[in-house]
Amino acid sequence: MTRPSFTDQLALAEGRAKSLLCVGLDPEPGRFPQPWRGDARRIGDFCAAVVDATHDLALAFKPQIAHFAAHRAEEQLERLIAHIRAVAPEVPVILDAKRGDIGSTAEHYAREAFERYGADAVTLSPFMGADSLEPYMRHAGRGLIVLCRTSNPGGSDLQAQRLESGELIYERIARLAATEWNRGGQLGLVVGATFPRELARVRELAPRLPLLVPGVGAQGGDAQTTVRLAWRPDAPVMVSSSRAILYAGGDHASVAAAAGAARAAAQATRAALEQGRAAA
């Protein structure tokens, strides 16, 4: 059976959930509800509780691998992704890994993302060029979401520098991803909501690519502006919010209260995104 493309998966998920919200799963045990506070053995349980509370509101889930690996919780990540498959098989999983290497190393990173964890897509750094992406392209139907104009201020140190051609570096990345790099039709781009002018420029250069847009919520990006600039009926947008949802209620005394606060925050974010789509 042929695996549907990541873009097709997003379109189906968007239609089912009527949502552009990607829920980021960045577990920090020190911020868990009081019964689990500081207990890294509960990373998977905490994230599963958030998944259970929000999966009908989510276009995608995006676990951040370092938040698991730093606590030796890779097996918990495997179990978490299996849990997502069980309770929300229609919701794609993006492994936020930001890998970037070549040759056999890239091949092993690709196997890690797509075979070990079973992710539908992975975030990648394009700094080493097209041959750093090729090992991932061998996994048919999987998404490769390439860093382009990231949400952090320091991204300007390189991404906003001008090349001899007159292009800015992030513009070159967007153009290559939309054309010669995208031989298998698997590429998408990461563009921060904190840079709305650049977001609009990337959408101009890559009118059909899926965009993963972090920076809404805790980083201050505006949800409605983001959707108005980036969403197109034939071009998926995944607007990611992590901390603003995971830790919405602050210092909760119970897991149930934390999950309820996460759901309320996800509902509010989804509603704001839908208002932006109506205005697009």
Describe the structure.
The chain has 280 residues and is α/β, with parallel strands linked by helices. The chain contains twelve helices and eight strands. The chain has a single domain, classed as Aldolase class I (TIM Barrel, Alpha-Beta Barrel). It starts with 5 loop residues before the first helix and ends with a helix. The longest helix has 25 residues, at 255-279. An eight-stranded parallel sheet has the order 2-1-8-7-6-5-4-3.
Q: Name the CATH superfamily assignment.
A: Aldolase class I
Count the beta strands.
Answer: 8
Compute the number of helices. 12
Number of separate domains: 1
- CATH topological fold name: TIM Barrel
Instruction: Based on the coordinates given, report the CATH architecture.
Output: Alpha-Beta Barrel
Largest sheet: 8 strands, parallel
Mean pLDDT: 93
Along the chain, the helix and strand elements come as: HEHEHHEHEHEHHEHEHEHH
Q: β content, as a range?
A: 5-15%
- Using the coordinates above, name the CATH class: Alpha Beta
Task: Report the end-to-end length measured between terminal Cα atoms.
Answer: 36 Å
Oligomer state of the chains in this structure: single chain
With strands numbered from the N-terminus, the spatial order across the biggest sheet is: 2-1-8-7-6-5-4-3
